[in-house]
Structure formats: structure tokens, C-alpha cells
């Protein structure tokens, strides 16, 4: 396809979708994790046609963008985040014709498609890596990060790795490859070798691939761990924290020296001039980024990315040993963190807003209360506080139904490589008993959010007619889409209303935000302002009644815009009493 053809496609394919700069401030994104969304062909795995069959659900929710987790050809070591062909669809998900149909179906409904872009690493089965590992003289050798054993050691023996970094998925970050007697770097599993972004050919290959998707009609990219692509020269050893088996390479691979340059280059090479680029959405997944870094990455003048996924509020229940060393959430700490991000990106740059995704437990189980008594109301309260903040909200599939964590009791219940590797290392290398490891995996494990979407109360929740690749969460008979979509009091309808408010009230997208009551251990409170207009959001994120003096926040009157409980709403005044998990939004 010539460049001219491509630009014709860009303009015709996306006709009718808003193109004004910053359109995504008013947008809500819906994330689809395809293997768990809907199975159309009865093999127990979700697929693209399954998504096409459920487009009405997405349209009804009212969202503007779908972010699709990877559907590319992949050995599925990390459920598709290990890609062996960026320009083909894995047969388990369908074909390129299916993705074209999905794009067309979404566009016809005014919804954009953002693809996952996983280019910090490929699969070890990608032809690039197969060439790279074939010989030290192969033209693609330098496309990956190869290093000899540490001087004075025997290659392949424990401790001979080029540096002491640990992999994010347990074990060392290096794999010895006998054929050429060197090691390759893999920040994730050994089947996910890191690309060498210092090599301009690698960058060009990524740009070409992205342009190919743009020409196919996709509207942007969610960029997987994109802040890991620039590593510090020399790859120095990391500090070994107390109790750790490996050194911490994070300071040497996150937010590295050439990251800004690489991001701006992608943007320029793939999206073209300012006007054309404004049609797309880019969101960089950036673990460990600070607000100060995010100010730079999301500064529109620099054209690096539109927004990032920051991780700070995801760490409020992590102990010193990380996510599998959980601690209780303290609401003031969570609010302070979100307040820092709201303030830091108030003037310039932009926030993404999320409670969950395919890497996190279910929001209602983690930040709310998934008991029968409070599940619905707490799911709505969480949605309310998130969606009315300043930023672009992301809804993870099933969150709009108040889907909960699943039951993970025995190691056989788990599917995720992160949990399985962690368990193996904890029991076999550290000598812990299974009973000491499993509760933390059940709490924080990624399989919680990867169980099938609960469509109805039929066997397997209507997800598949076969045995699903992971068990359905047992509560699907009561928690499912069929029971909610037409019920005006459901979690689904509440989310739908939140999406509508963002579309219709400029104050939600553009107003300033002031956080209140940061020390309060029960109430999440903030106000939004735009010209003469104001919103007050008060949510009791606890199972006990809570009291707020609204007059002290400058609010004595206002009309009620949204609530999450039936019956009487508290009136504004010095003594507003909120019932457990009650959330109320006032407007003036
Ligand atoms: C972040 C993705 O969200 C996660 O699912 C994946 O395992 C890692 N990056 C590695 O690609």
C-alpha cells in the first residue's frame, strides 16, 4: 500500500469519529481481554467473533473506545503478551478478516479501536528472535539484548548471568542460550526476550508495523510497559533488597535515558502531522512512573503519549515484598496518591483513571465489598468516584457488572504464568509451605480478573458451550449481564449513566478538581468547578455510616445529580449522613 492510499484510508475509515484535539478527555475506554470475553466457536476460549456478537453490549454502555488486549499470533506463554507475529491474528482468536469486521462494526457504532502494542519484548518464537539466536553474526543478532557470562564464571552455571537482575515473573532476568554461549535479557518470562531499542532497525520495524495497523483502521495503541524500552548503558547490577533473591534492575530499565526520544519518534513516524495525530489515542503503560515523569510524557507539546497508566494507587495494598505480600488498604493513603496525580496533571498533561485491568484483582473485591449485601452499592460507589475525576476512565470488562474476584484455592485453580512461577519459586527455592503462599496469590493473582465475562445464568455463564479455559466465577447465576442490562437500578445502568455524564457535562471533562477530607478514613470527597458550575462528590467507602459537614466544604445547596441507593438522599448541610457505601453527587 502506498502512503497516499494509507492517508485515504485514514480519512475515510475514521469519518464521523471526533477528531478535535483532546477528544479523549470526554471519552470512556472499555478494555476487552479477548480470551475471556466471549467464545463464538465452542473451543472454550474467547475470540474476535465473540466480541462482534456482543457489540450491542458495548454500544449500550455508551463507551467511546475499545482497548483490545493482544490477539496477535502468539505461543500464549503470557496470554498473548508474547507475540510471534505482529501482523497476523492468532488462530485461537480468528483471522485478519475478523479484525477488519470488528473495526468496521465498532466504527459503524462510533466507537474506536485501540490495539495493545507489546514491543518491549517479542516471543522467543518470533522470526526476529529465531534469527537473532541463530548465530552471533546474524544481521538480527543486535535486535535483542545479548551479553556474555559475567567474567570469571562458567557460562550457564548459576551466578554466571551478565548482571543480577531478577525477572518480573520470578527467576533471573537472563536466559543462557547454548547455541551461541551467551545470555539474552528477558524482563518477563524467558519466552519474552527484550528487544534492543538502541538499534534503529528495530525501531523502524516497529514503526512500520504500527503504520500497517493504522492503515487497517485502528485508532491508537495501549503501549505495554513502554517505559522499559530504553535501558541504561552497561546494564549495571541492581541493589539486592532484604530477603530478595535478585537485584532490582528497575532504576536501570524504567524511564530510561532515551525514552522521551523513542516515544516522540514513534508518534512522529506513525501518526504524522499534528492534525492527523489528534485522531488517535495513545496510552503508555508505565509501571513506577512518578507524577513528574508523567508531566513530561503527557505534555501535549512534546507529542510523546496522550496519557499513561501509572501504578501508584495500585500499590496501596503492597507490602515490602510486593504484590504477593499484601497489606490492608488505608483510604487516606489511596486518596493522597490520587490527589497527587490530579494536582500534578491539572495544568498540563492528562490522567488515565482505572481501578482494574487484566493484571489486577476485581475492583469491587479489592477496593469495595463483594459480599451479597454491599457488592452492588460498593461497585457503584467506586465507579462514581473514579469516573467523575479529571482524566479518561477505563472500564475493565465485567467491571460494569460488578464482577468479583473468583475462588482460587489450590494451585491447580491458577492459570497465570506470573502466579505459577511465583508459587514455584516460593515453594521450591524459598522453601515456603503452600498454605503460606496461596492466600496472597488468591488475593492479588491476575486470574481473578481473567475468568469469563458473565453473560447470563446458563451453564458457563453463557461464555462458552465447551469447557472454559479457566473456571467461571461461581456467582454467575446472580451476577450477569442479562440480569442487569435492562434494569435501571443495576451496576451496568449506573456505569452507563456515568459515561453519559462525562459526554454531556463539560465540567466532568474539563472542570478543575479539589480533593477534600484527605484524612477521613471513610469518605472519598472532591469537588469539580467550571465557571459558575460546581459538582460535589461524596462517597462513603466503608461499611459503616459516615458523617460529613458539607457546609465546611462550601456546599449548602445543590440538586442531586446521581445516587447509588434507593430511598431518601441525605440533604446538604452541616450533618450529611451517608449510609454504608452510599455515593451522592450534587450539582450547582
Ligand atoms: C503488562 C501487561 O499488562 C501484562 O499482562 C504482561 O504480562 C506484561 N506487561 C508483559 O507484557
UniProtKB/TrEMBL annotation:
Key words of the record: Glycosidase, Hydrolase
GO term, biological process aspect, one: oligosaccharide catabolic process
Domain Glycosyl hydrolase family 13 catalytic span(s) in chain numbering: 31-450
Gene Ontology molecular functions: alpha-amylase activity
Cell inner membrane as UniProt keyword: no
Domain of life of the source: Bacteria
Key word Hydrolase present: yes
Family stated for the protein in its record: Belongs to the glycosyl hydrolase 13 family.
Entries under PANTHER family matching the protein: ALPHA-AMYLASE FAMILY MEMBER, OLIGO-1,6-GLUCOSIDASE 1
Name of the protein in question: Oligo-1,6-glucosidase
Organism: Flavimobilis soli
Amino acid at each position: 500500500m502506498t502512503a497516499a492510499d494509507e492517508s485515504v484510508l485514514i480519512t475515510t475509515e475514521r469519518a464521523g469519529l471526533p477528531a478535535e484535539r483532546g477528544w479523549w478527555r470526554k471519552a470512556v475506554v472499555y478494555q476487552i481481554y479477548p480470551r475471556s470475553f466471549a467464545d463464538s466457536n465452542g473451543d472454550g476460549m474467547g475470540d474476535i467473533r465473540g466480541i462482534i456478537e456482543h457489540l450491542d453490549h458495548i454500544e449500550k454502555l455508551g463507551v467511546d473506545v475499545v482497548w483490545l488486549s493482544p490477539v496477535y499470533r502468539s505461543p500464549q506463554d503470557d496470554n498473548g503478551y508474547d507475540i510471534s507475529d505482529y501482523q497476523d491474528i492468532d488462530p485461537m482468536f480468528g483471522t485478519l478478516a475478523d479484525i477488519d469486521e470488528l473495526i468496521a462494526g465498532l466504527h459503524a457504532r462510533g466507537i474506536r479501536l485501540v490495539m495493545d502494542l507489546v514491543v518491549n519484548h517479542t516471543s522467543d518464537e518470533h522470526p526476529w528472535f529465531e534469527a537473532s539466536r541463530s548465530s552471533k553474526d546474524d544481521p538480527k543478532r543486535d535486535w535483542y539484548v545479548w551479553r556474555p557470562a559475567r567474567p570469571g564464571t562458567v557460562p550457564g552455571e548459576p551466578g554466571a548471568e551478565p548482571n543480577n537482575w531478577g525477572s518480573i515473573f520470578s527467576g533471573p532476568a537472563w536466559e543462557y542460550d547454548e547455541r551461541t554461549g551467551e545470555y539474552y535479557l528477558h524482563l518477563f518470562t524467558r519466552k519474552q526476550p527484550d528487544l534492543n531499542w538502541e538499534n534503529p532497525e528495530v525501531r523502524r520495524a516497529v514503526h512500520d508495523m504500527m503504520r500497517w495497523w493504522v492503515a487497517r483502521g485502528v485508532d491508537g495503541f495501549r503501549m505495554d510497559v513502554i517505559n522499559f524500552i530504553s535501558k541504561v548503558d552497561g546494564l549495571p547490577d541492581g541493589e539486592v533488597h532484604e530477603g530478595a533473591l535478585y537485584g532490582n534492575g528497575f532504576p536501570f530499565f524504567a524511564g530510561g535515558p532515551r525514552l522521551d526520544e523513542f516515544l516522540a519518534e514513534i508518534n512522529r513516524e506513525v501518526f504524522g502531522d499534528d492534525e492527523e495525530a489528534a485522531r488517535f489515542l495513545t496510552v503508555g503503560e508505565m509501571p513506577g512512573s512518578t507524577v513528574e515523569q508523567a508531566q513530561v510524557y503527557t505534555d501535549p507539546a512534546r507529542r510523546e503519549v496522550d496519557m499513561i497508566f501509572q501504578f501508584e494507587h495500585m500499590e496501596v495494598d503492597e507490602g515490602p515484598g510486593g504484590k504477593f505480600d499484601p497489606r490492608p488498604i488505608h483510604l487516606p493513603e489511596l486518596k493522597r496518591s490520587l490527589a497527587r496525580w490530579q494536582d500534578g496533571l491539572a495544568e498540563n498533561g492528562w490522567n488515565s483513571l482505572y481501578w482494574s485491568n487484566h493484571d489486577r484483582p476485581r475492583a469491587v473485591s479489592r477496593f469495595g465489598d463483594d459480599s451479597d449485601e454491599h457488592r452492588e452499592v460498593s461497585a457503584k460507589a467506586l465507579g462514581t468516584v473514579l469516573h467523575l475525576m479529571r482524566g479518561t476512565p477505563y472500564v475493565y470488562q465485567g467491571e460494569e457488572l460488578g464482577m468479583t474476584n473468583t475462588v482460587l484455592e489450590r494451585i491447580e485453580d491458577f492459570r497465570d504464568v506470573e502466579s505459577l512461577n511465583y508459587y514455584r519459586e516460593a515453594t521450591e527455592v524459598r522453601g515456603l509451605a503452600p498454605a503460606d503462599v496461596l492466600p496472597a496469590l488468591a488475593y492479588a493473582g491476575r486470574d481473578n480478573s481473567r475468568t469469563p465475562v458473565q453473560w447470563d445464568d446458563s451453564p458457563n455463564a453463557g461464555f462458552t458451550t465447551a469447557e472454559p479455559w479457566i473456571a467461571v466465577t461461581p456467582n454467575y447465576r446472580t451476577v450477569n449481564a442479562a440480569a442487569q442490562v435492562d434494569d435501571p437500578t443495576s451496576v451496568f445502568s449506573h456505569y452507563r449513566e456515568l459515561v453519559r455524564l462525562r459526554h454531556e457535562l463539560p465540567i466532568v471533562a474539563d472542570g478543575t478538581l479539589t480533593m477534600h477530607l484527605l484524612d477521613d478514613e471513610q469518605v472519598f470527597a472532591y469537588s469539580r468547578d467550571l465557571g459558575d458550575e460546581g459538582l460535589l462528590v461524596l462517597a462513603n467507602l466503608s461499611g459503616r455510616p459516615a458523617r460529613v459537614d458539607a457546609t465546611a466544604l462550601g456546599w449548602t445547596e445543590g440538586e442531586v445529580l446521581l445516587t447509588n441507593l434507593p430511598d431518601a438522599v441525605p440533604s446538604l448541610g452541616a450533618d450529611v449522613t451517608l449510609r454504608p457505601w452510599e455515593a451522592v453527587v450534587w450539582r450547582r
